[in-house]
Amino acid sequence: MNESQTRWDLVVICPTLVLGPSLSADPTSGTFYMLENLFGGKDKMGVPELHFPVVDVRDVAFAHVAAGENPAAKGRYLVSSGDKSLSMLEMAHLVKSVHENPGLLPTRQFPKLMAVAAGPFVGMSIGYMRRNIGYAFKVDAGRSAKEFGIQYKSVEGVVQGHYLAWKESQKK
Predict the structure, then answer these.
(1) Which of 5, 36, 66, 79 is the 20 to 30 A CA-CA neighbour of 52?
(2) First vs last Cα of the chain: how many Å apart?
(3) To which H or E segment does residue 35 belong?
(4) Quick check: 8 pLDDT over 90?
């Protein structure tokens, strides 16, 4: 091993689905498109049962700074609010109380077969849909919370905050 490489420790910040206000006036990430469809009514008829753990963008930024300032930081740090993934339908339910037109939100999930067949029409392969539809999972961000002193925003606050930021961006 080259001696010049031993002076660095690799630290990796692994965020889950990052939500929250965007620095860009015109966000272009897949996350924004997916949630724009959810919030704006394009998914009113239903959503696939895809699950995502979520984290606020500000908590991700905090983790990056904390990792850079902590000389003991080493390895991989998962950053996530909560300890489980949320389905898209659960995200819609969390937003319902603050949504200006909750009737636009979906109230059901598509059957797996229908979601898998529709995958290629929304940019997702059949293989991806087969492997991911209907699978909730748990996550553990305890190490990042403990070592970096992160107090993650609540899952409800993260999802509602993303909706409110999205709604504000629609006015511009």
Answers:
(1) 66
(2) 53
(3) helix 30-40
(4) no
Q: What is the pLDDT of residues 78-117, one digit of tens each?
A: 999 999 999 999 999 999 999 999 999 999 999 999 999 9
Name the nearest CA neighbour of 89 among 137, 51, 145, 138. Answer: 51
- Spatial CB neighbours of 98, under 8 Å, sequence gap ≥ 6: 160, 163, 164
136-164 in b/e form (b: 16+ CB < 10 A) is: eeebebeebbebbebebbebbebbbbbbe
The two three-digit tokens of residue 79, written as one number: 């950053």
Rounded Cα distance between 85 and 52, Å, is 5
- Pair 161, 87: CB distance under 8 Å: no
CA dihedral 163, 57, 144, 146 (to 10 degrees): -70
* Rounded CA separation 44/106 (Å): 4
